[in-house]
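hi!! sorry for the late reply, been swamped w classes. u asked for the two structures so here they r. pasted raw, havent cleaned anything up. first the sequence of the first protein and right below it the C-alpha cells
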Amino acid sequence: MESGRRKMLAVACVVACVVAGGCSRWTRVTSVDAAEGGAVGIFEGTGDVGQVLHKGSVEFDAAKGTYTIAGSGENMWFASDDFQFVWKKGKGDVTLTADIAFLGTGKNEHRKAVLMIRQNLEGDSVYADVAVHGSGLASVQYRDERGATTREVQANVNAPKRVRIEKHGDYFTMWLGGVDGKFALAGATGKIVLAEPYYVGIGVCSHDKDVLEKAVFSGLELKEGAAASAVKPTMYSMMEIIDAGSLDRKAIYVAPERFEAPNWMPDGKRLLFNRKGRIETILVEGGAAQTLDTGFAVQCNNDHGISPDAKELVLSDNSQGDHESRVYLLPIGGGTPRLITKNAPSYWHGWSPDGKTLAFVGQRNGEFDIYSIPVTGGEETQLTTAKGLDDGPEYTPDGKWIYFNSVRTGHMQIWKMKPDGSEQTQVTFDEYNNWFPHFSPDGSLMVFITFDRSVEGHPENKDVMLRIMSMKDGKVMVAAKLFGGQGTINVPSWSPDGKRFAFVSYAIVPK
C-alpha cells in the first residue's frame, strides 16, 4: 500500500438489516474500500492502534455483509497492542459475534483476528478480546490495568466455526460455535472495569511488523444494552490448567453446573475433582468425565487427595449417621471407604510424604483447629490451639513442615509449624486474606488463593487471585486473577513434574 494513499469513499449505498439488542431495524450502510477513520458498516471508525510500519485498511461488502481487514503490527500482547481496529463506541452490556477466516497461508501462525472490547484507542489500553490465531488457537485475552501484561485463557477447541465475546458488567466470556450453530462457553476473565463509553469492534494483527495479514469477518451480529433478565442466571464451572512458568491458562472442561477442587493424579494423565457429592476424573486434555466408585460415600465435599504412593484416595464425606464430615480412605481405583476420624466435623487437607500421617481440620468445642492422625486411624493429635480459625494444613515435600492458614492475627495469613505443632511461624504479611498453601513436588514454589481483606472466610463467587511464592527468596507474584473462591483450589493440584497446576474458575452468565 502506498504511504498516505487514501481511496475514495461512497462507492455505493444500500439498505441492510442489522440485528441489535435482539430486535431488527433498518439502517443505511455504505460499501467502502480501504477506508481510514470514517464509518464502515455498523461501525463508527477505523484506524491503526499502537505502532505499525504498514498502514491497515478495511473493505466492507454491503451485499455480503463482510468486513475484510488488513492489519500489521508486532503483536497484541505484553503491555501494548499494534493492530488495525474497526470500532464503535458502546455502553452497558454487549455481545459481538462473527465468523472469522484468514486469507492466505500467512507468515506467522500467531497472526490474530479478534472481537474486541477496549477502553480507548491507545496501545496500552485495558481490554478483553476473543482472538482466533492463524494456527487455529482460540483464546480470551485481556489486560486488566493500563500498561499491564496481557493474559489469556486458551480454549480447548481449535479453529472454531464461529466466535463470540460477551460483556456482562465487569466480566467477559468467550463462546465458540460449531457447524450446528450452537455456542458453548469456552473461557472467561476475572473482573475488568471499563468506563463508559468503551470501544467495541473487530481487528487484525499480523504478529510481524514487516507484513500485512488479512482476515474476513462475516455474519456479524452486535447486540447492545440488553435488558436485565428475570430468569435466574447460569453458573458455569471451568477446569483450568496454568503453566507455572509462562502463566498461560487453558480451560480444558466447562460445564453449566458447579464442580470443585482438582487433584492431579500421580500418572500425570488425569485430574480428580468433586461434583454433586461424587468424585470424578477427567483427562488432562479434557473430554468426558468419569465417576469413581466411592461406595456409600456419595456426599463428598471438596477436601480430597491422593496418597504419596498413589495407591489410596482420601476423601471427606458427610453421607453417614449425623451427616457431619468425616475422613475416609479407599483404594485409588474405587471401593468401600474406611473410616479414619471418628470425631466430626473433620476435613482432610494433608498427607505426610512418608504416607503414615494425615493432617486435617476439625471443629471441636466450637473452635476449628488442625489435627493429625495415623492413616491406620486411632486417636487424633491437636496441633493448633490459637483462638480463631486454623485451616488448610499441607506438608512440605520434605516432611519437615506443615503450612496452613490462620486468622489469629486479625485476617487470614499463611503460617507454618513443625509436624508436632511446634515453632508456629507466620509466613505471609500483607493486606489480603490468604488461604490453602500448596507446594510444587520439589518444594520450590507455593501456590495459594488470595481474597480481598474485606472477605470473611473462603466463600464462593468472589474476585480472587492465585499467587505463587518462591520458597527460595519469599517473593510473591500473581499467577491469575479470576472469579472463584470456594472450590477453586482447596486441595493439592500440582502436576507430578511441577510445571503446572489445576484449578477451577467460575462465571455467572445472565440468560
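now the second protein. again sequence first, C-alpha cells right under
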Amino acid sequence: METEIKQIVSLANSDKKFKEFMEDPTMARKKKLAGLDEFCKGGKFSETTSNFIKVVGENGRLSELEKIAECFEELCMASRGEVKCVVTTAEPLDAAMLADVTDALKGHVPANSKVIVSTKVDPRIVGGMTVGIGEKYLDLSLLSKIKKVEHLIANPV
C-alpha cells in the first residue's frame, strides 16, 4: 500500500489534469468518487489502497493526499525501525561525506534503528548543513550563524 500511495502522489505531481481533478473543490463528490473508482481499477491498485483513496475523496481531503502520504510513510518506516533524516547542504555531498554524516546521525536515533538519509542542496545556507531527524531539527548552517551575528550587531546589549 505504501508504494501504491507514493505512486498516486507522484502521478498527481507530474500530471496537471489529474492534480486538478484531485484538488477541484467544485466537482460533485459522486462524480469525483466515480472517477477515483475508475482510476483505481485502471491502475490495478490493491483493494486496501483503492478503499483508502476513496475514503480520502469522500472526506474531501484529496488536496491533502501528499501530506497524508508523508505521514503514512513515516509511520511505516517507524514500524520497520527506520528513521528518515533529511540533510540539506550548500553543495552536494560526495559518497565519503555522506557516509560520515550517516554514521554521525546514528548517534541521534534510537538504538537498532536504521538511518535512511535523503539529501537536498540549497545554496542559500552558504555552508554547513541542516538536518531533519524525524521531528528534530539541527541547524548547523553558516546562514544561521551569520543571522545570529547580524542580530547581535543590530541589537547591542
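hope this helps!! also noticed smth abt the second:
Strands lie at 82-89, 114-121, 128-133, 136-141.
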